[in-house]
Amino acid sequence: MAELTIRQVRKSYGAMEVLHGIDLDIEKGEFMVFVGPSGCGKSTLLRSIAGLEDITSGELRIEGQLMNHVPPSKRGIAMVFQSYALYPHMTVRDNMAFGMKIAGMKKPEIEQRIRHAADILQLGAYLDRHPKALSGGQRQRVAIGRAIVRDPRVFLFDEPLSNLDAALRVATRIEIAKLKQAMPDTTMIYVTHDQVEAMTLADRIVVLKDGYVEQVGAPKELYRCPRNMFVAQFIGSPAMNIIEGRIVHNGGDHVTVEHAAKGTAEIALHMEEEVIGRSVRMGVRPEDLSLADDGPHIFSGTIDHIEHLGEVQLVHLDVGLSNQAVIAKLAGLLDLARGDQIRLRTAATSLHLFDDQGERLNGPAGG
Amino acid sequence: MTMPAPASQAAPANIWSTLARAVLLGFLLCLGILVIYPLLWMALSGFKTNSQIFSAPFDLPTGFSWANYVAAWNQGVRSFLFSSIVVTAASAACTVLISAWTAYGLTRTRMPAKPVITALILGGMMLSPTVALIPLVRMMQSIGLYNTHWALIILYTAFRIPFTTFLIRAYMLELPSDLDEAARMDGASDGQIFWRIMLPLCRPIIVSSVILHILFAWNEYLFAMIFTSDLDVQTLPVGLTSLMAKHGTNYAQVFAAMTISALPIVILFFLMQRYFIRGLTEGIGK
Ligand SMILES: Nc1ncnc2c1ncn2[C@@H]1O[C@H](COP(=O)(O)OP(=O)(O)O)[C@@H](O)[C@H]1O
Ligand SMILES: [Mg+2]
């Protein structure tokens, strides 16, 4: 049975509904990441699970028990806040001990748990300091330590890395991944707006948009087989190129699309119905594009701009569309310059096809 | 030879800014003297005899004899001071604790009709004490608290809660709610969150509120005059008036008594200067 089940959960603030009937099952020991643009309701969903917000309707169960009206501290949950929310007037030790003291735990037991957490997080030297006297990364670790000592079944993180600088963010991300490995039975739910964090940390990702679940799945699954255009463009960086087009031929195991950038593309897709003339959107990831010397190609145009990242270069290709360039991620060694005319090709199996509502029609083979 | 040129250019500006600063300094000095001199004069006059005060009002006292201070102390100032301290301390504690708890409720709980309740409580600031005076006298008489310290403690608390709640509530609204949410996740009850998280976090505004309340209660005259009649329950402002009525001609002793009554506030000011200034800016709605 799932550790955490969410059924038709809705949340309104006054007349404004923020979550519109969320359904989710989270398995025991899973690292689940909620990702989505700012304001999509990630924090609200997390806080509803924590019990800091009452859900307006629907059910929340942990290990089968209905949790809707159970106070936060009785849910077996610990939370790491975005701001860390360390008590500024208490030392690191007291910050960690606060919850245990309130629960009436014995002194030696409290001390032992604090020492254990301090060992894991390398906080031993800072136990008698106040949060003021710690760096951002250390505060972050104290916040995690305060959650660890509670020995929770479910661990919640709300954008825990967003207050750290770039280098520290990567280091802390790795520490969190290791922490998860060290606690295999603990379920973790992690909120972020950063798809890289989501991809690198998650067992499974929930993509949210405007209070709806867009897709749930393993990182690879979301990357290879996005259910709709939103997920397709949200996961992966730079975002997937999407071009409007029309189906002009159905060849049984593939269809041919004539797209707005004055080219055609063959897409591996089996369609039964009458599809000729149907308007569609074609998606291709920048990393799936490569130079097509004289062979068949799907795009041709002038290089408008190049961003060199060393190992790769991001080539912005003007394909004759007024509002949109096609971005290709090409090897950094290729000798390209602004103004060059180039052609791009891709495999028929790496093209994604969406209908005019943005819903997926195909998958790359195997997806 | 490049140095003199900028110097001569800068000179006029320098003169004006120095002058402006000198004028400002002089002005502040005058203001300071204006405020401090009468106080000092009062304290020094307490060391003179009555005839000296009239013959040489601006001379320094010939000797520092504590006779007037001792006499004033024994003439009732001791009991007034005691009453003032009791009434001020008790009402300060009650006012600030009740207000802080109210502010916590108004900012951190999900009670229904919160805006209405907030308006109702803060609306108390509009109530003029003079208007309520007669019913209050009747009420205090009928519950038997008239002419006791309790009367003043209750009235000061009641009349200062709206303003103090207003101050603390504004401060609590600014505090991020993460901390009390973290405490809630840690299993703390409302009482524990209030005592162990919110009150420590609100320390600056609590101290300011206490100071503002002390300033009010120490100097309050109207209620003190109307609700107390016996010397042993009268506070300093009222007590001093009655002392003056009795020893109206012995100015030296009256000055000594006044000095004693002003002293606690002056000491408090020097101890808590930092908070005092913040308290006052907070009080004018900064
Ligand atoms: N306490 C609140 N009252 C009213 N609206 C809120 C409240 N908290 C969040 N919202 C709204 O709910 C939506 C989702 O917010 P949130 O869950 O914080 O988004 P995010 O995905 O960025 O964490 C936002 O539009 C926000 O304005
Ligand atoms: Mg958020």
TrEMBL record, chain A:
Similarity annotation: Belongs to the ABC transporter superfamily.
PANTHER family: MALTODEXTRIN IMPORT ATP-BINDING PROTEIN MSMX, MALTOSE_MALTODEXTRIN IMPORT ATP-BINDING PROTEIN MALK
Domain named ABC transporter: residues: 4-235
Keywords from the named record: ATP-binding, Nucleotide-binding, Transport
UniProt keyword Transport, yes or no: yes
SUPFAM superfamilies per the UniProt record, alphabetical: MOP-like, P-loop containing nucleoside triphosphate hydrolases
Protein name: sn-glycerol-3-phosphate ABC transporter ATP-binding protein UgpC
Coiled-coil positions: none
Taxonomic superkingdom: Bacteria
GO cellular-component term (any): ATP-binding cassette (ABC) transporter complex, substrate-binding subunit-containing
PROSITE patterns: ABC_TRANSPORTER_1, ABC_TRANSPORTER_2
This protein's record includes keyword Ion transport: no
The species this protein was found in: Paracoccus alkanivorans
GO MF assignments: ABC-type maltose transporter activity; ATP binding; ATP hydrolysis activity
